[in-house]
Amino acid sequence: MNIRELYTRAQEIAPWITERRRALHRIPEEGFAEFETQKTLMGVLDELGIAYTSERTWIVADIRGAQPGPTVALRADMDALPIREPEGCPFRSTHEGWMHACGHDMHMAIQLGAAKLLNELRDALHGNVRLLFQPAEETVGGAEPMVAAGVLNGVDAVYGLHVQPYMLVGQIDSRPGCLNASTDEIDIEVRGKSGHAARPEQGVDALICAAQMLTVLQTVISRNTSPLKPAVLSFGVIEGGEARNVICDKVTIRGTLRTVDPELREALKRRVREVCGGIAEACGATVQVNYHSGYSALINTPKEVERVMRLGKSLLGEDACSIRPEPSMGGEDFSYFVEKVPGVFWHLGCSETLPAPSLHSKELVPDERCLPIGAAMECALVLDRMGILEAQ
Fold this sequence. Notes:
The protein has helices spanning 3-12, 14-25, 35-48, 104-120, 143-148, 206-222, 262-283, 302-316, 335-338, 370-386; strands at 51-55, 58-64, 67-77, 126-134, 157-168, 172-174, 177-180, 182-191, 195-196, 231-240, 246-247, 250-259, 286-292, 298-300, 321-323, 343-351. By secondary structure, the protein is α/β, with parallel strands linked by helices.
């Protein structure tokens, strides 16, 4: 079977895929609380006759081919966002205050469509297909514990996608190397000495110290980092002080550090500690800098990006497929999968017209015409990796 035939078959089952997407859209859930979503997905897998196992709220399903060959994994994320969906959608969220505003309902439906098609082809498969339905991408990350639990054991390649409203239906993009930045959280606690505001010399002002830190920390990117290496250091929270006439003795600063290079990531962490420590000492204060590691940088396998581009051009045309010129500074925990096995994360256009509302917007309305495109591409990636996709 070639990619055009796969797309024709995907179009034939597009109403089935769409129905599943709308059912999932109605039940958005928080990360690691996707119980109804998990139950719904397992019901579809039962309907298809695909064996699966589950742990916490994730699902691992396997389609076993008739012939030996590689095991190829497909991943779809499951969780939603704490956003109240506007009125008007005929399949609006029934979980008030939650919405699939990042398109994860689309991802699950696309993967179910691919599963249906691949299961029908299992007698022709040279290898196995592993379906990974992953929780908590939007929050603490479900990929890392899934990898720790062994879901990639025996897997030779892994593929994932994300719908993107900045592209029209029928367009795709990706990028070899770094596609998404690492995401670390920073908590800085500055300690001074309380006192009367009229006698500042008797105290140590943590507010003044923290203000100096915020100012100088901006030079960590502008003066300690090459402009050719993307990095972001942003602080969104500063808390401190009790009264207008009291010298503040404690300030907390919270922010985020995002990089695309693992070595730069560690170097910037050290530099932030050095800057904060030096300023605290100069002010007579003390400081503690704590990092909470977020997702690692998502590094695509170049050969697998080439595969996506080649298949995309074959299906959609040369002009429909593009290489992103720079990585995104947003995080994506698919990174933990491609740290272990070769793979690629790619983007699927989902807008009818441009400009369109962005991901994480309550106004997001993905165009469902992209569903069969995604399903056909996922099937093509599996068959091509197995070496059995026919030329057109």
